[in-house]
Specification:
Rossmann fold, 9 strands, 310 residues, 5-stranded parallel sheet, 2 domains, alpha/beta, globular, 14% strand
Length: 310
């Protein structure tokens, strides 16, 4: 990968290289330490925020983060319907490009993100889709940098459902040279294409990628990461009880932390306490969950500043 590649959009983790990611992490930490220095970084800029899915942290962190940079954020919620239904995604992108300096989109389908980026004349930021959650992963590695300093020495394990969060986390880990272990129940593994992509990136960076469905094979780790087992919108599913029983051995708790010698537990929230993680561990000093949440804003601000600096 060329280190000279320009950052035009922020769509998927594998579209950035190591130097770009490290630069974003460094910038996020600098903005966090010196917010006054960036208080006019987006002066006169407006950002359109498309939300097909409900949100707490993503909405608040973008809205308030843009405000801290001196910019203006406009929220476009679910009342506008699913992208591509009321009008074409291409028309949506071209219209917003007439008014906004950037587009943030939290959508159901990665196809929608790609359509927006293809037809918009302004930068597009993926605030979550079905395949990737790059803003979350970037915030997580900002958090890990604050906790450990040298990322190359960190051993990170994700335990639970193979989803958009774990996809972005392991792809970014591979690019950055972080050893990563993915532990998922049978039937809930990451897609083979994502695993192949991650392995290729790990081969390039020298990171080790280990994938298993056996929680007992997790080995020694520095950090354990988990996410909800029940996807948004599936909370009332008749299959929930069977799903929870299937996932029960993968609960992240104090015993797992002890068995792996991990010192930090991470969760992107919202947490379903006593399901994927115990209340006791979530509320403990080992958890950096609210540091992660705050770093969403600083990481996203770094992306915005980088995209809109010209």
């Amino acid at each position: 990968m060329s280190n000279q590649r320009n950052l035009n959009n922020f769509l998927a983790d594998d579209q950035l290289n190591k130097s770009q990611l490290l630069a974003l992490i460094e910038l996020a930490i600098n903005i966090k330490k010196n917010p006054a220095d960036y208080s006019q970084a987006l002066a006169g800029k407006s950002v359109a925020m498309i939300f097909e899915k409900p949100s707490l942290r993503t909405h608040v962190s973008f809205d308030m983060g843009i405000n801290k940079l001196g910019g203006h954020a406009l929220y476009l919620g679910q009342q506008n319907g699913k992208l591509g239904e009321r009008e074409r995604v291409s028309d949506y992108a071209k219209n917003l490009s007439c008014f906004a300096d950037a587009i943030v989109a939290r959508v159901f389908s990665h196809d929608s993100i790609q359509g927006l980026a293809q037809h918009a004349s302004v930068p597009v930021i993926n605030a979550l889709c079905d395949i990737y959650h790059p803003c979350q992963a970037l915030a997580d590695f900002v958090t890990l940098t604050e906790q450990f300093g040298d990322l190359s020495k960190v051993k990170l394990a994700y335990v639970g459902d193979g989803n958009n969060v774990s996809n972005s986390l392991m792809i970014m880990a591979a690019i950055l040279g972080v050893d990563f272990t993915l532990v998922t129940p049978t039937g809930y593994e990451a897609e083979e294409s994502i695993i192949e992509k991650t392995q290729a990136l790990a081969n390039e960076s020298g990171a080790k990628l280990y994938i298993t469905s056996d929680i007992n094979n997790i080995c020694a780790q520095d950090v354990i990461y988990t996410d909800t087992w029940v996807s948004m919108g599936d909370e009332d599913s008749n299959k929930k009880a069977a799903l929870l029983a299937h996932f029960a051995p993968y609960q992240v708790n104090h015993q797992l932390m002890k068995d792996t010698d991990a010192s930090i537990v991470m969760h992107c929230q919202p947490a379903h306490l006593e399901e994927e993680i115990t209340t006791e561990l979530f509320d403990s000093d080992m958890a950096v969950v609210f540091q992660q949440a705050e770093n969403r804003m600083w990481a996203q601000n770094a992306v915005l500043v980088s995209l809109l600096k010209n």
